[in-house]
Amino acid sequence: MPFDAHGHLVPGALPPARAVPAHIARPPYVGLAAPPGYAGDNTYTEVEVERIRTAGRIAARALDAVGAAVRPGVTTAELDRIAHQCVVSQGAYPSTLGYRGYRASSCTSVNEVICHGVPDDTELREGDLVNVDVTAYLDGFHGDTNRTFRVGEVAEEVDLLIERTHEAMMRGIRAAKPGRQVNVIGRVIETYAKRFGYGVVRDFTGHGVGAAFHTGLIIPHYDSAPAYSDVIVPGMVFTVEPMLTLGVHEWDQWEDGWTITTRDKSLTAQFEHTVVVRENGFELLTLSE
Ligand code: MF3
Ligand code: CO
Ligand code: CO
Questions:
Q1: 158: three-class secondary structure by DSSP
Q2: Which of 87, 90, 171, 197 is least surrounded, with the fewest CB atoms within 10 Å of its CB?
Q3: What residue owns the CA closest to ligand 1's atom 8?
């Protein structure tokens, strides 16, 4: 059921709705069709950065727990249950739950799914890859992170795609220095990815994050200059979350309104950190300790 005769993914059955204890504060968009407009900028005080870091740490710990559970036979719904439980048990709210009508506590994107895969009864198979994306909300601030996990042993080209997608993210983060435009990040990522002939997804991007889940600041992962010319300043917080493919960068969307796959069904990987820019570098705000 969850894979067709060609081994391509098809929609499965959805798990029951996940409950969040009443004492956990909801972000303002829950129950609305779209988030209220965000008027603030993308720089934060030290107190605010620490709040983003606390939320980011909770999301990262959820990914640690999910990663420990990835194995052949586990369903993406089970991974989502683990992510949900881990976020909620730390007193935080899973930001995706009720975001623009999305109904899960994580995104689980398997094989050709670029992003926004919806957890269901799909059982992972040896050799698959799965990206899990978790965002936590605590004390008014969001931290957003994702990782791609290998299911058992994967083919060498898949192993390399995952490894290089992580390296592409880190190169993009290291390029983000005060005084440069945010388009430097995608220029560095695309240049690296093109060495290997990978597709670089253009239509899903990094973003400002913190006081809002998506603040309006866009961080492309391809060379977009002269567009996206916002100048990087110390204290700025955003995600870098490149999606690289073994084929094309074009995509299709499932009728569920969420799941995004490569148009050619090529495999795709992603990593994401929330980062704060410093005078002399950066800090990752989505580390588990
Ligand atoms: N966490 C994703 C990001 O990196 C956003 C997921 S929104 C959802 O920006 F609604 F699809 F969950
Ligand atoms: Co993000
Ligand atoms: Co994310």
A1: helix
A2: 197
A3: 96
